[in-house]
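Q: What does the predicted 3D structure of Aromatic amino acid hydroxylase look like?
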Amino acid sequence: MSYKSNPVLDKLPEHLRQYIKPQNYGDYSAIDQAVWRYVMRKNVDYLSKVAHGSYLDGLKKTGISVDHIPNMYGMNRILKEIGWAAVAVDGFIPPSAFMEFQAYNVLVIASDIRQLDHIEYTPAPDIIHEGAGHAPIIANPEYAEYLRRFGEIGCKAISNAKDFELYEAVRHLSIIKEAAGTPKEEIDAAQKRIEKLQDNMGEPSEIALIRNLHWWTVEYGLIGTPEHPKIYGAGLLSSIGESAWCMKEKVKKVPYSIEAAYTSFDITQPQPQLFVTPDFAFLNQVLEDFADTMALRTGGLSGLQKLIASKELGSIELSTGLQISGNFESVIGHKGNPVYFQTKGKTALAYREKELVGHGIEQHASGFGSPVGKLKGINLAIENMAPRDLKAYNIFEGRKIELDFEGGIKVAGEIVTGTRNLSGAILLVTFKDCKVTHNDELLFESKEETYSMAVGESVVSAFNGPADVNSFDLITHEISSTTIKPEISEQQTRLEQYYDQIRHFREGKNTTISRHKVLDALQNEYPNDWLLSVELYELAKANGDIEFAEEILSHLEDVKRGNPKVGHLIDDGVELVEDNFVIQR
């Protein structure tokens, strides 16, 4: 395995394990560690005033250190105490898979870390966003249950054919924006492609709507009142830029409601408005209200139509509890209800998420079709017929019969047997020498093979994915692009060595390093680097070396003049040092 497991991870199905990759902790450079430390020190200082109270408590409970990028092996030892776990992945993964991980109480953490040039914000998921943003809040039991429940419902949301195309485009943009040296024209082209896709998505799918809910709560949620909000969303908790931006009056604060599902967002821009929930319990209330609108709970003709439009593996559940999983190809409707459905290719039948014996993809390799509904002129549905009723209507073994359903569907053949559940209710009726027609159109004709007719008065549920995950080979994940690892120049390698030396000095591993020589090297070789100079300033102040501290400040002023865009980052770093120095005094 590429990761160290724990009792929570042991429960993950195989198709989710395909997304997991090793963290490779040794690949983090000293500059990466410095970026983490700067962001975390700044965040903890600022967020202690504006974040929900669970944040600081959660940092301790989940093993998130201010000084070191978290090692997921260590995190998992601590997370298992609250019933969660964490795994590393490569950037964005498909939304349904991301949410299914949540349903298993597993945090998905993009293990790469943003470049120093993107220290305030990156559109790419990284370990600052995932580890420092998502992990601490799950220590709150009520929020953790919301996250799990969100994943459980969200992974059943049905997509449409354009959703995956948009996901791939967003993933590509996040990768090239974070990659060093990507030409601006390439980034602009990728951005325009996303905008074009977003403008031509048509009616938003369920996955698009629930992704909006996820964005406005899990990623960018505020809690409290619009007048006095606190931060709990991971996107805000992990961005030193947006955590300050979101508190400004120009950012509109809206009471949270189901309207958030119909409010789109732009992942590449600071958000102009945010939603504020009064408490974590209200998040679950809105989630359940939204779930009531999903095909998962409404089923019916529209649910089947959503599955057909998705062109993805999905499932329906009939009123008997019988579940059919496959790629739905067509449906015949009558008076607003489905009266016949057809899948194409490998199909499996299940009951209560467990495949029915003899009804896997081997048996139904070319598809499965069946009528739905009541028999014409008979008020009692087949599923509600007792053995005497079935015999009265000639529905029993060895009888040749023609079943005439409402909506013009007819099934004619010799009944071979029936399949019942543990309660005795009939789920399937199996025929031989069978014909299925719709008015005068032949839908199916069995020759040598038997035909199993599903029993169900109605379609009560339609959802993404298979009913039984073991029925299909789901290990098919392929990505069009992967995170771009920068080539490290000899000059960059030397700079990383300087960062490493100062880190070792601060941690007491090697106190013989000349910090003055490091500053000289920065001034002569790396005049635009500012973060290591801030760390040198911190050490100078801690050691009471006032003259050296003043020299560093003078150098930082030169850096600010040469690159005004980093001026506020330098000032914030210096202010952090000053504040900590005052507290220590």
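A (community wiki): The structure tokens above were generated from the sequence. The chain is about 40% helix and 20% strand. The mean pLDDT is 89.
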